[in-house]
Amino acid sequence: MEHVYDLKILKNQGLIRKPQDNLVIFVDHSEGPTRKRGRPIDLPNPNYIAIHAAIAEVLNMSGAGRFFDELLDKFKDAEGKVPAVRSWPDLEGLILRENVARLFQSVKVH
Length: 110
What we know:
- The structure is a single chain.
- The protein is mainly α.
- The protein has 2 domains: 1-62, no CATH class; 77-110.
- 42% of the residues lie in helices and 5% in strands.
- The chain has helices at 46-62, 64-73, 88-106; strands at 4-6, 23-25.
- It has a two-stranded antiparallel sheet with strand order 1-2.
- The protein is extended.
- It starts with a strand and ends with a helix.
- The mean pLDDT is 80.
């Protein structure tokens, strides 16, 4: 069915609630009796969902996913949240900012 996907959990870290029958269903709720008429909301592109799932499988099987999880855990904020990293340059920027901050903190002013 269109916009219906099987949920595959690669690393269960305490999901609050699994969907019924392990199905994730995307639905546009922009119109309805309790909503103002608005423009429709584009649903996720099935090709992008498939690409995401394939990359997640490779990262999981190769152990690279665990590496990235551990790396990003080092950069949690004060609330314990991992910052959003959408690309390799984002990750490099995060690491650079962290290292520059650490460098400035280690400098002693006379």
